[in-house]
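Quick entry, no commentary yet.
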Amino acid sequence: MKIIIALALLFVFCFPAFSQNNQNLAEKLGFDRNAKLLIIHADDMGLSQATNNAVIQAFQKGGITSGSIMVPCPWFSDIAEFAKNNTQFDIGIHLTLTSEWDSYFFGGVSPASAIPNLLNQKGYFYPSVEEFAKHANGAEVEKEIRAQIERALAFGIKPTHLDNHMGTILASPEYYQILLKMGHEYRLPVLIPADMIAGVSTQLLEMLSRDNVVVDHLFMLNQASPAKQWGEPYLKFIENMKPGLNEIIVHLAIDNDETRAIMVNHPDFGAEWRQHDLDFVLSPEFKKALNEYNIKLVTWRQIGEVQYPK
């Protein structure tokens, strides 16, 4: 109950854009005040060639409105070239501090000697949020986050926002403060999932300033459905969507030998899962539901223009 009250007070006192006397985000973006805004976002660009190809296909066919790149991953340079040459697509940075696969690993962009507490004995990121939280410290987290942003910029990417792989930043209020600071410094909106944060820590809520834009409701599959019913949880979220800013996170890849090798022993978020997500965002039933429930698709670029006007 305290968390709910804190969240309510946050919106009343810290977010004047949501009060009755000012334009809210929807109005600033040119929609009705009670519009249901939705970002359809693909994580993990750069993870593999199959991931890159799937996300590019989804962008080109209008299945998603946003995506974000894992800078430390082996296929980063491939997707960086695409992002540099296709600035019409909304692409941010998926800040990465974990490496979760059984036989496919990545470490930091920073020299290993600069971030020793973020790396295991083999020089790679730890595979879980729990192990990351046990070893990490704020100075090294900030150093690596900054290095990933700077590398993306050096490759010609003009990122539209910052988000975070596996939610590692939520492991500590200190790390979330670093992320918010990076957003302000680089003038980029940060994914702030209000409902998720409210369930983690009131300290995180208290860090938000009046110019932060929050995602009111974030939805992501955490459990696989039977293939024939794969889209039902997404469709239910759309059917029950509330006014405000919403985001659906999907994980896309082509189910091929590369994806199956990377994601071996990982049925959750694995090769079949990612192919199902791709098929769903490109499906006629998904587009039909968006139209039927009058969902207004938006991008992080649009939000950035509101949050950090030129």
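second:
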Amino acid sequence: MSSEELPAPEIKLTDAQWRERLTPMEFAVLREAGTERPFTGEYTDTTSEGIYECRACGTELFRSSEKFSSHCGWPSFFDPANSDAVILRTDSSLGMRRVEVLCRTCHSHLGHVFEGEGYPTPTDQRYCINSICLRLKPAQ
């Protein structure tokens, strides 16, 4: 899907406004499609129960019940909490074809989704998400 075909974000801020809300590293990943170094994110190995929200806008994206250990260096989920919470679009950067995962509410970059890797999950998908894009709201 090309960027022209994306639905309009519910939250639309200027780069200056995003920079006020986010740290420089959060801005680099969420707004400029960067990637945090593997095995450095706070949620890579977290097994706490709760809801993972978009760090930029607070939208519920994933639940701990969909998180699994992929040993890839980033938090991995086999499905979004609500399939409408994310947008998937083709990413041809870095000389390869991947599928980028964006927050539907604010269009922030979250990571990429991969299929057919053989993980024992219900969807055979791995949503490889940067920790810095998430905020865990612990279960009550």
